[in-house]
Amino acid sequence: MSAALILGPTGLVGSHLLPQLLEAPEYERVIALSRRPLEIKHPRLTGLQCELAEVEQHREALQADDIFCCLGTTIRAAGTQEAFRAVDHDGPLAVARLQEHREEKRFFVVSSLGADLESSFFYSRVKAELERDLAGLGFKRVVAARPSLLLGQRVNLRPGEIIGELASMPIVPIMRGRWRKYRPIQAHTVAENLVRLARGQEAREGMEWSIA
Questions:
Q1: Whole-model pTM above 0.90?
Q2: Which of 46, 54, 179, 194 has its CA 20 to 30 A from that of 65?
C-alpha cells in the first residue's frame, strides 16, 4: 500500500497540498500530522494530532513512502530563534529520522528562496541546514522547493509578508528569465508542483528547486 505523509496540512501550502494528495491515485492512504484538528474528511485520510516533540511516540503511524513537509513559521511568530529552529528544522528532521527503509523513500520539503549555509540571515541558514541534513539521511530522493514570497489566504496575517507582496506587485510583470524565480508565487502552485515532481513530471512556474 503506497502512503503519503504530510507535515503541516493546515498551513498555507499544506492546506492546498492535502486535497491534492487525497485525490492522487498514486496514494492509497494519506497521513496528516498536525497540531490542530483537521476540518477535511476523506476515506483515505488518517489524521494524527500531536506536537512535534511527541513524534517519537508515533513512529509506526508515521511510516510512509513519500513524505511532504510544509511546516514553517517566522522568528516573530515563534518568539525566539530557538523556537523557530524547533519548527523549521528539528521537527521535520525528527520525523525524517523515524522513517524506516529510507533508501526506498522520498522526502519533499518546502524550503525558501535564498536558502544558504553561508547566509547572514538566520532564517535562510536554518532552511539550508534542513536541506543539508535531510540529504544526509539516505533517502532515495530529497526535493526542496524554494519559493519566493508565498501568496494566499493565511490563518495568521504576517505584516512583513503583506508589505512585501504589495511592494513587489508593480515589478512582477518585468521579472522574467533568471529573475522569474523571485516573483511572488501562489501557495496552490507550489502544492501542484510538489505533486508534479512526485509523479516524475517537470515543475511549472518559475521557481527554484533543489534535488538531492
A1: no
A2: 54
pLDDT class for 24, splitting at 50, 70, 90? very high
Active site residue 127: yes
Query: Residue 167 above 50 pLDDT?
Result: no
At residue 184, the pLDDT reads 87
Q: Distance between CA atoms of 128 and 112, rounded to whole angstroms?
A: 8
Superfamily of domain 3-148+186-211 in the CATH hierarchy: NAD(P)-binding Rossmann-like Domain (3.40.50.720)
Rounded to 5 degrees, what angle do the CA atoms 117, 118, 120 make?
Answer: 115
**Extents of the domains making up the chain:** 3-148+186-211
- Quick one: which of 205, 196, 203, 210 has its CA closest to 66? 196
List helix spans (H) across 24-89: 75-78, 81-85
Amino acid identity at 18: L
Task: Compute CA distances 39 → 15, 19, 75, 102, 164, whole Å.
Answer: 10, 11, 27, 31, 30
123 labelled catalytic: yes
CB 65 within 8 A of CB 82: no
Q: 3: number of CA atoms within 13 Å, CB side?
A: 17
Catalytic one of 27, 105, 127, 182:
127
